[in-house]
Amino acid sequence: MSHIHFIGIGGAGLSAIAIVLLQQGYRVSGSDRQASAATVRLERLGATVYIGQRAENLRDRPETVVISSAIAADNPELLAAKKLGLTVVKRAEWLGRMMAGYDGIAIAGTHGKTTTTSLAAFTLERLGQAPTYIVGGYVPQLEANAAAGSGRAFVIEADEYDHMFLGLRPKVAVVTYVEWDHPDIFPTPESLRQAFVDFVRLVPEDGLVIGCGDAPGVAEVLAQAQAPVITYGLQPDNDWRAVDLVPNRRGGLDFKVVTPASGGALVASVSLVVPGRHNVANALAVLLIAHQQGLDLVRAAATISEFSGVERRFQLKGEVNGITIIDDYAHHPTEIKATLAAARMRFGRQPIWAVLQPHTFSRTLNLLPEFAAAFADADHVIVLDIYPSRETDDGRVSSRDLVRHMRHPDAIYIGPMRDAADYLIAHLTAPAALLTLGAGDGYLVGEWVLEQLSQ
């Protein structure tokens, strides 16, 4: 088998690809700036992992070098690969090659794609379909974020960042949400919407496009598809609908599914563990995938009801002395509102503390009013310093600016994470729920608080 090398192998996208290739028998190596749980898992599976990105990592001259969007043009390992004349491809192009010969099921959307992809992979796996799958998050019940299956389905999280999803070749495409994000890549809402239009047009006429009819912006994208379209959601004008939503004792919602084809008769009943109305929509999308794959919907609904979630999506970190600590990847105003609404539904009148680590300066600046209005379901809000990710601070926006824009009765700025943890330990009283929100390392605040409270 060929030798494939990944620059940035510890990232969510490349680590998943590497796992699939290892299970398919490829020789895999790669490098990352620092060790992580992902690099440890890859080494256990047989990958050669170098910590630090240097020219000598390529001394075995792999046939192909795969890079992510995060790899800068002046990366020393990338420059060495080009100098050696090695084949260098981006993640999107490589994924397109990997999907050849499969029934590709690509799940896209500015919100909800990781949970929906995880749930789809979990459901098909538990129903005996042995899918190949690549997810942008770790799924505890599958003990993986990727696997090489023997079935015909290839389930993949279709990331819009840097137009990655345009390299895919899906037979089925799901669009969960279309809302402006990643202003560093998409300078206007229209540019992002056009990328999603280009994505659904990848689906051939004998394929299927599945879209959330409740989500703003999705209808305009679906109208441009050349394949048949089915919509899902909670609103009455969708093809597949969730009705009779009732909170359950597991923290999620029970609901029934009806379709026009059933004449409004019950198709399936679902009882979710994962909380929030947004996860009802995600579950509907997966039921549609199961239907498209010819699976029994009653069994699919029962399987969906067993799904306990994906890492960093409303993840319970611990509970001590009446204080519950949860971490969520929410880093867009719409995601924050949905997560806090789910928390309010689960915790009732208990005080909710929200700790936000804004993610990137460009997103914070361009969506400042939306961020400021996203915390109505939180009783107390702490805003940490902005997590820069791939950006540098140009001085145009800060977390202090965000707090100044908030009209919240208790929103404060505490920049350093350790200081925020100390403040919480001094002020938290039971019963209460603490949610850390963001795509960076702000989850550490919750872990430190949990550690201190446990002592």
Report the principal-axis shape: globular
Number of helices: 15
Strand content: 15-25%
Strand order of the largest sheet: 8-7-9-6-10-11-12-13-14-15
- Radius of gyration, CA atoms, in whole angstroms: 22 Å
Distance between the termini: 51 Å
Low-confidence stretches: none
Produce the secondary structure layout.
Blueprint: E1 3-7, H1 12-23, E2 27-32, H2 37-45, E3 48-51, E4 64-67, H3 76-83, E5 87-90, H4 91-98, E6 103-108, H5 113-126, E7 132-139, E8 144-147, E9 153-157, E10 172-175, H6 189-200, E11 208-212, H7 218-222, E12 229-233, E13 240-247, E14 253-258, E15 266-271, H8 277-292, H9 297-304, E16 315-320, E17 323-328, H10 333-347, E18 352-356, H11 361-366, H12 368-372, E19 380-383, H13 399-405, E20 411-413, H14 417-427, E21 432-437, H15 443-454
Parallel strand pairs: 1-2, 1-4, 2-3, 4-5, 6-9, 6-10, 7-9, 10-11, 11-12, 12-13, 17-21, 18-19, 18-21, 19-20
Antiparallel strand pairs: 7-8, 13-14, 14-15, 16-17
Helix pairs in contact: 1-2, 5-8, 8-9, 14-15
What does this structure look like?
The protein has 455 residues and is of the alpha/beta class. It contains 15 helices and 21 strands. It has helices spanning 12-23, 37-45, 76-83, 91-98, 113-126, 189-200, 218-222, 277-292, 297-304, 333-347, 361-366, 368-372, 399-405, 417-427, 443-454, and strands spanning 3-7, 27-32, 48-51, 64-67, 87-90, 103-108, 132-139, 144-147, 153-157, 172-175, 208-212, 229-233, 240-247, 253-258, 266-271, 315-320, 323-328, 352-356, 380-383, 411-413, 432-437. The mean pLDDT is 93.
